[in-house]
Amino acid sequence: MQSVFSLAHRARSVVCVLGLMSVPLFAQAPVVAPGWTAPSISSPAPFSAFCTLQNGDLVTFDGQFVDRWSGDGSVYLGSLGSLPNATFAGFALPTPDGSSVVLGETVLSGAGNLHRVNLASASIQHVASLPLVYDAEFAPSGKLLVSASTTGLDNDLLSVDVFTGVVTQVGQVSGPSGPLAVSPSGDLYYATQVYSFPPPAGSTSVVTWSAAQVANGGLNDANATLVAASFDGGSALAFDPIGGGVYLGETNFGLNVNRIRAVSPLSSPIVVDSTQYVNQFEILIGSYPASLAAYQPGSGINLRYSRGGFDIDRLTPARPALTVSGPGTMGMGQVNFQITGGPPAGVFQVTACPQSALLPTEVPIQLPTFLLHTTFNLSVTRRVATGFALDANGQGTFSIFNPGTLQGQWAFQFFAGEVFPDFLGSSNVVSF
Questions:
Q1: Fold of 321-431
Q2: Predicted model pTM
Q3: Among 369, 394, 401, 416, which is most buried by a count of CB atoms within 10 Å?
């Protein structure tokens, strides 16, 4: 059977309690890498599981009570029901059709259940009994893929129909239950776990199985494909449905590590470095087809997560901003362009497109090193200048002289990156 310590390492609610003991009264704000922002709200129900509904409302589950709030948590919108007894909250997850929220609970005795909350009727239905449930994500099939150590030994990967309660095992992996994520095509990602608490440095790996493997079942350690290794723990996992990136919550109380990493086989840069643990990852799909990556538009994919139990942060890409000024914007004279929010000490390139050829809206174009968002018609786009340096704050300037005939002729967009020609993002489009 799992020890209390190994269970505590995996159960979100117990991790919250352990984290509370190490949270300073006035916790430091996390350090967010360049190209990102992470606006924060106070959790309306500290240490609760939460999820975001299709209309932006927030649902919290504290282990017994299920409540609905405005998206920023400031307005209480009402109760969605309650369980007969207090348990530990594992997760809250909206169903793909938007009609319900699935709740995962776990308790120290090893028991645990899945419940489904009907949002229209505010009623709770028991779905299945699954001991030591930790995480879950919906597959494209509509079935819920669940990580739960149902025997108290190794971790089971299960497929659950949340409307009928039918549970099917699709695999088993070594270690306690850990976080998982699912791609739009149905590939399953998992952060491996060990029984030691806290886990040794470098003991966590991120692995994956294809959608076909998931459909056939029999998932195990041997037939998993390694994505990246040598992480110091795994508390949460998310998959970017546009860019294909994998994001890992790396929490380790023994090493005082609380991070979010952008996982890749070659390097996994730290995106958020926090003094408080991070967990409960939730992908939010915006109104714009931008990926969850540095220097992308912030209105695309965002990552919502819990930080320290008291705060709910929203990891958001921060696109470089381009402005134009100077007397040459109105007639003869100098035209000054300024880019801000680029990679510190990086480089930028200037491109131009005839205003007559601009597209009505921005479109995403996959370039070798980043997803470009532009209104430019690339067939008539020209590179004006390249190799210009950004300063330590990611700012740079570029000027041209308007002889008095350029007004209404050209639009400009800057690419920005750490080195030439491996650009990471693009600015907005400006014209005069």
A1: Immunoglobulin-like (2.60.40)
A2: 0.91
A3: 416
